[in-house]
Specification:
Elements: E1 15-18, H1 34-39, E2 44-46, H2 48-53, E3 61-65, E4 70-77, E5 85-88, E6 96-106, E7 115-122, H3 141-147, E8 158-163
Parallel strand pairs: 1-5, 2-4
Antiparallel strand pairs: 1-8, 2-5, 3-4, 3-8, 6-7
């Protein structure tokens, strides 16, 4: 497992996640097209080694989470995924669970200190669930002048964990 800086929840997340473009959508367009959903089911791609360590079988519903949020989607085990890295296709629509909640910790008021937020578990698999806006160096000229933040997405990637059990 990777050792890394612990998040606000005091968890050292051990998996890097990437968000590749998918052949069935153009960003979020066509995400709700039934025939495309059948041909390309949305999932988290995970290496067999990482899946085995976590007791995950192909097709299991799993939780992918970090300090920013949590999603619940099927796992697809594949040798095409590097060990230590999971992939979740970008462009899926956010679908909040009506029954499952998650304790997230992120800085909503911009004071540099993460606060606790109770959020819905995303059952749609929107990767933005696992990211927070942060200054990535490519500033938006208006937003950057107003807040000293770019408001950019996490293009450099993020860390997460994957589990069959709902995280605390």
């Amino acid at each position: 497992m990777l050792e890394g800086k612990k998040g606000a929840k005091e968890i050292a997340y051990s998996l890097q996640f990437t968000t590749p473009h998918m052949p069935n959508r153009s960003h979020s367009s066509f995400d709700n097209t039934t025939s495309l959903m059948d041909a390309f089911p949305h999932c988290v791609f995970i290496n067999p080694e990482d899946a085995q360590k976590r007791g995950i079988a192909d097709g299991d519903e799993v939780y992918v989470y970090n300090d920013a949020g949590c999603m619940k989607i099927p796992a697809q085990i594949t040798l095409r995924q590097l060990p230590g890295v999971v992939s979740i296709g970008e462009g899926a629509w956010y679908q909040p669970s009506s029954t499952e909640k998650y304790e997230a910790w992120f800085d909503l008021d911009g004071d540099g200190k993460p606060e606790k937020h109770i959020v819905a578990v995303d059952v749609g698999g929107a990767v933005n669930t696992l990211t927070t806006d942060r200054d990535i160096g490519a500033a938006d000229p208006v937003l950057h002048l107003q807040t000293n933040k770019s408001g950019g997405f996490a293009a450099g990637g993020n860390l997460c964990e994957v589990s069959k059990q709902k995280p605390a």
